[in-house]
């Protein structure tokens, strides 16, 4: 048997032993049930209704209110920042899909991040003013 063929016969099992691969999905947060978003009525539902329907949000946010007159900006911005506290509930569900393949010194890595996000905006009376929803994850999460 020629020496080159023998080297290939020995090299292939060694390369197979030095290779690896992995597939995985990590999930963060609770999946958002889009069918329940219809229960939130703009102008009628309150923070309590949203909390009852979706539970505690992933994050709270407040949007700054900018007054039209720059001379009153400092005093009104401070007041608006205090009044606007927790005016937006943010619900987020995220899936990180990762896979990699390694053979000796070659590595192929791929990562795909998909997220669903529900944002519920409230007025100063804690009544829902606006609802925004974006979905990226596949409907089937039984992987």
Give a brief rundown of this model.
This protein is an alpha+beta fold and 143 residues long. The protein contains 3 helices and 5 strands.
Mean pLDDT over the full residue set: 79
SSE run: HEHEHEEE
Largest sheet composition: 5 strands, antiparallel
Question: Uncertain spans, ≥5 residues at pLDDT below 50?
Answer: none
Number of helices: 3
Structural category: alpha+beta
Beta-strand percentage? 35-45%
- How many beta-strand runs? 5
Span between termini = 49 Å
Helicity range of the residues? 10-25%
CA radius of gyration is 26 Å
Categorize the overall geometry: rod-shaped
Describe the structure.
- This protein has helices spanning 3-17, 47-54, 73-83; strands spanning 19-28, 59-61, 88-103, 106-122, 128-134.
- The chain has 143 residues and is of the alpha+beta class.
- It has a domain at 26-96 and 106-134.
- A hairpin with a 5-residue loop joins β4 and β5.
- It is rod-shaped.
């Amino acid at each position: 048997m020629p020496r080159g063929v023998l080297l290939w016969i020995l090299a292939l099992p060694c390369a197979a032993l030095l290779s690896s691969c992995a597939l995985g999905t990590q999930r963060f947060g609770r999946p958002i049930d889009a069918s329940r978003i219809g229960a939130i009525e703009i102008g009628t539902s309150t923070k309590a209704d949203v909390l009852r329907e979706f539970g505690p949000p992933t994050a709270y946010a407040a949007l700054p209110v900018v007054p039209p007159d720059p001379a009153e900006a400092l005093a009104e911005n401070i007041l608006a920042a205090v009044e606007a506290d927790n005016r937006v509930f943010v619900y987020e569900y995220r899936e990180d899909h990762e896979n990699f393949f390694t053979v000796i010194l070659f590595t192929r890595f791929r990562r795909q991040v998909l997220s669903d996000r529900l944002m519920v905006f409230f007025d100063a009376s804690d009544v829902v003013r606006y609802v925004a929803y974006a979905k990226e994850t596949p409907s089937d999460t039984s992987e």
